[in-house]
Amino acid sequence: MYLSRLTLTDFRSYAAMDLTLERGVSTLIGANGQGKTNVLEAVGYLATLGSHRVGGDGPLVRHGAERAILRGAVTSADRDSLVEIEINPGRANRARLNRTPVPRPRQVLGVLRTVLSAPEDLSLVKGDPEQRRRYLDDLLVARAPRYAAVRADYERVLRQRTALLKSLRGRPWARQLAGAGQAGPAGPRPGSPGEELPGDPDGHGAPAGSAPTTLEVWDEHLATKGAELLAARLSLTGALRPLLAQSYAALAGADAGITISYRRSFGFNMPGRRNGAAAGQPEPEPDAGKLAAWLREALALARAEEIERGACLVGPHRDELELRIGDLPARGYASHGESWSAALALRLAAFELLRQGGDDPVLLLDDVFAELDTGRRERLAAVAAGAEQVLVTAAVAQDVPPVLAGGRFEVAEGRVTRAGGG
Fold this sequence. Notes:
Blueprint: E1 2-11, E2 14-20, E3 24-29, H1 36-48, E4 68-75, E5 80-87, E6 94-97, E7 100-101, E8 114-117, H2 123-126, H3 129-143, H4 147-168, E9 196-197, E10 206-207, H5 211-252, E11 258-263, H6 288-309, E12 320-325, E13 328-329, H7 336-356, E14 362-366, H8 374-384, E15 389-394, E16 407-412, E17 415-418
Parallel strand pairs: 3-15, 3-16, 8-14, 14-15
Antiparallel strand pairs: 1-2, 1-4, 4-5, 5-6, 6-7, 9-10, 11-12, 12-13, 16-17
């Protein structure tokens, strides 16, 4: 798979850009702040419908413009495709595939697949668990686009259930829902006139009298949707484990290996223990039915604390992908070089996993060579050279190892031109 043409309108610093690309390596050279990363960000957005730099779409639209348009011509072993995305901050984005509108933008996922490595990737090693959960979920969607709907469904259930728990927090009668007895005679009881709680999963309002039933309904939805997502993450972690070890060894050139473990926010030796993040606890099999049953039991055990805190404390949104280098956790113990190797290895493992599914994804390397010592730089270049298409950014051409020689483009003042005037 490779991207043969990229056209941008009012995206970031580009009022208009039309870039023709080829298989192999293409390097964008330019000083910082000239727009190199914006190009790779646009390619990544076409593939994932998201940015690796910002959480919202607003900053992606050029200042003074109302919308941004991205177009990518993609060539794969099976077909040629044209993907178009219209970014409308504050409104629904729109998408077209081969010039035909699609009902939902996520229906174009999978047409272009990318793996992007950038300086922000250090957060995969040093940052909060949320960064590593996002890594897994993004890879799930890249591997099988149907998981975009699974992910969206779980996030919707989580928002609604959290809103219900917040509405119950501090109410005297809420102790009943936690199985902790009755509210005092002076306190309002479930069903008091005029009190309303968040609606049921179909979007209908629910009176306060149905609070126990409503919470149970949301518990069931969280258990079933969460189990599907959790099972997929566990399978993915198992598939990544040997690829990550191989990639880290290729990059670090060291004896110390790297391991990954999926740590849950709830235990599997029910009842009596919810600390699923304990070191040494074995990973369960990715059986969605069993995982749903365990989630239901964990939710029941956590109910009192959840109502007291007004927060959803059980589910995949609180899990952790633990990285260890040698015998120590990477977070907090890895050196800068080890952290970079681990972050790059996570991306290269993702690349190898996607490659197993057919076409190579497009490999995007955003200003990573400047961050590496000579040894890691050469080893990364040797691995990257085998990809069908690689897009590289660098401030100076000397940062890019000779093995990645290919097309060169100069980026300056919002313009991208082929080196030498071609």
